[in-house]
Specification:
By secondary structure, this protein is mainly beta. The protein has helices at residues 2-30, 144-149; strands at residues 33-44, 67-69, 73-82, 85-93, 99-108, 115-123, 155-164, 170-178, 195-206, 210-232, 238-258, 268-286, 295-315, 318-328, 333-334, 351-362, 365-375, 382-394. The protein has a single domain (38-394), classed as Porin (Beta Barrel), CATH 2.40.160.10. The N and C termini lie far apart (68 Å). The relative contact order is 0.14.
Length: 401
């Protein structure tokens, strides 16, 4: 009797412990990794940061914040959903209040054959810098070509498929289809595909000290009644225009890294650059205000830009960097009805040179100072100074190459 009770009790206790262990195990499996990036800047600029680069007034201008600015805090959550999928979400906390979704996607983990499928909201795989979050940038801001052509970064709601070749040399090709919500597209109500991206990357190591990666990208989308405000006309008057047409952008990117004896903890040197060339063609309506001219005619333009930058870690924890930006607003082909209204040739190339110095007390924190000579607006030279902090809390995955 006693033995039976004891055995029964032991079984019950063991069952209880097994259930508890199973619950704990399941909780551990589904407990997501959490991270929080805190950042802020102090900016001193001589010109109104809202003024866009000359010849790019039809593009959005992310600009800079003057004085003390909290910056954008980033909250990240990620976990394996099951053996087939992994989920990732990155939420941006605005200094003015409110939360926006930067990334929220699901990625496959078991397709095999080098295939990887991603669907949801994500930063596009085009170029080199586009997939990197702001806290991973080597400078306080994005290059001019990213700020003007992509509004800092191209984000998409859609699907992405990548294939990694089974070779010693890194070879990756991929494609995306999406809604076209990110500039230069327009977020309109429609079925089907609003934008598409193709990209390819190749890279390799040269011994233990050198490594490189090169890539090419192609982006296509359509702009529908895209409104641009405060665009100067031939008389210098700010007007509001509308553009509807096709946009196609081709890009090239390259990065090379060198580290003596392969020891990146002590010092390393990185050289990178990207070039983008965009062609837009369609119809432009000049001066759409109530009392405006409202004249619609054909319009096309090819605009381009590039940046070249280097970063040198000259001793552990300390880095310095130099970047040069240049844009070409192109010469527009304007229909006869608007030939006397719209500036077709600005005869000016916006440029900017930036120098930065940063110190990282640990892998979780970084302090940075940056100065820039901004000549992106004709006749408005701007000497800029920025001080920035970036602090990382919680689990945070490694950044891309």
């Amino acid at each position: 009797m006693f033995k039976k009770i004891c055995v029964g009790t032991a079984i019950a206790v063991l069952s209880s412990h097994a259930m508890a262990a199973d619950v704990i195990s399941n909780e551990a499996v589904f407990n997501p990794a959490f991270s929080l990036i805190l950042s802020g800047t102090y900016g001193s600029v001589q010109r109104d940061p809202a003024i866009p680069a000359t010849g790019f007034a039809m593009n959005p201008n992310p600009g800079h914040e003057q004085g003390f600015n909290l910056g954008e805090s980033e909250m990240g959550i990620s976990a394996n959903v099951d053996p087939e999928y992994r989920g990732v979400a990155t939420l941006a906390l605005s200094p003015a209040g409110g939360i926006s979704v930067e990334n929220a996607f699901v990625r496959t983990t078991s397709l095999g054959d080098g295939l990887n499928l991603k669907f949801g909201r994500f930063f596009s795989g085009l170029g080199y810098l586009n997939e990197q979050h702001a806290h991973a940038w080597d400078f306080v801001d994005q290059p001019l070509v990213y700020a003007t052509l992509w509004e800092n970064q191209l984000g998409e709601d859609g699907i992405q498929l990548k294939w990694l070749a089974p070779t010693d040399t890194f070879i990756e090709v991929g494609g995306e289809m999406g809604k076209g919500r990110g500039f230069p597209g327009t977020d309109t109500v429609r079925n089907g595909n609003g934008a598409s991206v193709l990209f390819a990357h190749i890279g390799d190591d040269i011994g233990i000290e050198h490594s490189w990666r090169a890539g090419a990208s192609l982006h296509q989308t359509k702009r529908v009644a895209a409104e641009s405000t405060s665009v100067p006309d031939v008389n210098g008057n700010p007007v509001t225009n509308l553009f509807t047409g096709h946009s196609q952008t081709a890009g090239l990117d390259f990065v090379w890294k060198y580290s003596p004896n392969g020891n990146v903890r002590n010092n390393y040197f990185k050289l990178q650059g990207e070039y983008f060339r965009r062609k837009e063609s369609g119809d432009l309506t000049y001066d759409t205000t109530v009392a405006g001219a409202n004249i619609t005619d054909s319009f096309s333009v090819i605009q381009s830009g590039f940046y070249l930058q280097s970063v040198y870690q000259f001793m552990p924890r300390w880095r310095t960097g130099l970047r040069y930006d240049r844009l070409d607003p192109g010469v527009a082909q304007v229909g006869a009805l608007n030939a006397g209204n719209i500036i077709s040739d600005y005869r000016f190339n916006p440029t900017r040179t930036s120098l930065m110095l940063d110190y990282s007390p640990s892998e979780f924190s970084r302090l940075r100072m940056q100065v820039a000579n901004d000549q992106s607006r004709r006749g408005m030279k701007d000497n800029q100074l920025f001080v920035q902090y970036i602090m990382s809390l919680g689990a945070h995955g490694a950044h891309q190459y």
